[in-house]
Specification:
The complex is a heterodimer. By secondary structure, chain A is an alpha+beta fold. Chain A is built from 5 helices and 2 strands; from the N terminus they run E-H-H-H-H-H-E. In chain A, helix 2 (21-28) crosses helix 3. By secondary structure, chain B is mainly α. Chain B has 2 domains: 1-71, no CATH class; 72-140. Chain B has helices at residues 3-30, 38-64, 66-70, 75-105, 110-138. The chains are: A alpha+beta, B mainly alpha.
């Protein structure tokens, strides 16, 4: 089953005092480039990083990442 | 540009510089501008430069960008490195097949074989660092 993972990191950053990508990266221990790749949907992070992102925003994981299945025609 | 991408650039440029110097020494040796006896010494100097120069530049960059240096390689950077190494492996395997063909079908001296092995290794490393830089540039 094909699907894609989308995220609300950009929105959540702005809701948290316009947190920069660098600040988020420092908080979870990755590089700013990794945060950028995740935000743009180019890279799906590991579960550990996904949980750390959710923990930084103090929100459940499903509010940060969403899995959408592509409907088959 | 992340610190790991800078490291990959340093490695790539150093290898290109080293190879150019080594090939230049061989060409000058052929043209008898320098004696053949100087070629192994040049090769040794290039090898040392390839090892020492990147270390010095990396230390300099780490001192200039301490935050990047103190951050451990993250999962995406590790993935880039693994994918780049995988691509380089195919280059290495292809080079071995080509060199085996030449060793069997063309007269090769031990020096030719040594240079061939060196060339294959260098090309594999160039592919590795080139692919790593490309992944960093593209973001994935």
């Amino acid at each position: 089953m094909d699907g894609e993972i989308t995220n609300n990191i950009r929105r959540l950053r702005f809701e948290h005092d316009e947190m920069t990508q660098q600040q988020l990266a420092d908080a979870i221990g990755v590089t700013r480039q990794t945060i950028n790749a995740i935000e743009l949907g180019k890279y799906s992070p590991s579960l550990a990083v996904a949980f750390r992102v959710a923990a930084v925003f103090r929100t459940p994981l499903e509010n940060v990442f969403t899995y959408r299945t592509k409907s088959k025609r | 540009m992340s610190l790991r991408e800078k490291f990959a650039w340093v490695a790539l440029i150093t290898i290109v510089f080293g190879v150019c110097t080594y090939v230049g020494a061989i060409v000058l040796g052929h043209q008898r501008v320098i004696g053949y006896r100087q070629v192994p010494w040049t090769a040794a100097a290039v090898m040392i430069a390839i090892i020492v120069l990147p270390l010095a530049i990396r230390a300099f960059l780490a001192l200039r960008l301490p935050r990047g240096a103190l951050t451990a390689q993250d999962e995406l950077e590790r993935l880039f490195e693994l994918k780049a190494t995988r691509i380089a492996f195919f280059g290495l395997a292809a080079g071995l097949v080509v060199s085996t063909f030449f060793i069997i079908h063309a007269p090769a001296t031990p020096l030719d074989i040594a240079n061939g092995v060196l060339a294959i290794t260098v090309v594999a490393y160039l592919i590795k660092f080139g692919a790593e830089i490309r992944y960093h540039r593209r973001g994935f």
